[in-house]
Amino acid sequence: MAGRLEGKIAVVAGAGQTPGETIGNGRAMAMLFAREGARVLCVDRVAERAEETVAMIAEEGGTASSLAADVAKAADCAAIVEAAKARYGRLDILINNVGIGGGDGPAHRLEGAAFDRILAVNLKGMWLTIKAALPVMRDQGAGAIVNISSLAARAGGIQLAYEVSKAGVNRLTTSVAQSNARYGVRCNAIMMGYMDTPMAVSGIARATGRPTAEVRAERDARVPLGGKMGMGWDTAYAALFLASDEAKFISGAILPVDGGMGLQMA
User: Fold this and answer.
1) Whole-angstrom Cα distance, residue 263 to residue 159?
2) Dist CA 142 CA 184 (whole Å)
3) Which of 5, 62, 131, 132 could form an S-S bond across to 77 if both were Cys, CB 3.0 to 4.6 Å?
């Protein structure tokens, strides 16, 4: 089925990616949305990474533009929405894909600065982008928001800040869904398991000084479905469904995209 987002305007926050062997979630979502007919505003804190995604979309004949912005800053979030309106006239889809780690740890080791930084980006940043987008979507009487969460919202123990941030994303999602349903605005989340993305696999390899292949094999072995992690495209196809009119009666859902890992936590 082609053209599932034909005529839609989509913002993908976190559309660039760190260097690595595979495709990241944000880039995959931006590219797939463009393939399905959306015009895409690719947002990233690092301008060059967003521009790379735009170039890849253009090579396939899609329509996209880039914007450098930091979602931890309210003024930048407002600028994202204004750019979408100025360039494309409206805003139909908002994808919140920005997330960070680093410096995290269990409760007895985690430092306050790391906790504040991770929460400011992963949770507050999502709220700020949603806050900026809602007036436009409410005035239109329609809009789809998709937040990228993680199974860390339900389980873990060694990354307190990240886990708390993703638990907050899930509750942010349901709260926004409930308070905006009467305005035609939907809000859902994707709760991801182990994904073979540059940020996850290459990032862990660099942080631990281990070979990428070793990290990948270890993570693959933990996935029940086929013994393989998901890819950025798996996230992208789930987001495509939730953002499309096919999901017009779905709001407040937390959709696991995890190869069955969540079943082990039930």
Assistant:
1) 21
2) 5
3) 132
Strand partners, 43: 13, 67
Alpha carbon of residue 89 to chain centroid = 23
Q: Give the pLDDT score at 208.
A: 85
Cα 98 to chain centroid, rounded: 6
| Rounded distance between C-alpha atoms, residue 41 and residue 265, angstroms | 36
pLDDT digit string, tens, across residues 94-139: 999 999 998 999 999 999 999 999 999 999 999 999 999 999 999 9
Tokens 């409206």 belong to 90
Residue type at 97 in one-letter notation:
N
Question: What pLDDT, on the 0 to 100 scale, is given for residue 265?
Answer: 78
pLDDT digit string, tens, across residues 196-248: 999 889 888 887 899 999 999 999 999 999 999 999 999 999 999 999 999 99
DSSP letter at 12 equals: E
Catalytic residue IDs: 162
Phi then psi for 58, rounded to 5 degrees? -60, -35
Tokens of 211: 């070979």
How far is residue 68 CA from its own chain's centroid?
A: 16
Residue for token digits 């009666």?
249
C-alpha–C-alpha distance, residues 101 and 114, integer Å: 9
Domains, in order of start, for the chain:
9-193+231-254 (3.40.50.720), 195-229 (no CATH)
Does residue 1 register a pLDDT over 60?
Answer: no
pTM score > 0.85 for this model? Answer: yes
Q: Which residue from 256, 90, 121, 96 is spatially nearest to 176, judged by alpha carbons?
A: 96
At 183 the three-state DSSP class reads helix
Contact assessment for residue 216 and residue 201, using Cβ atoms and an 8 Å cutoff: yes
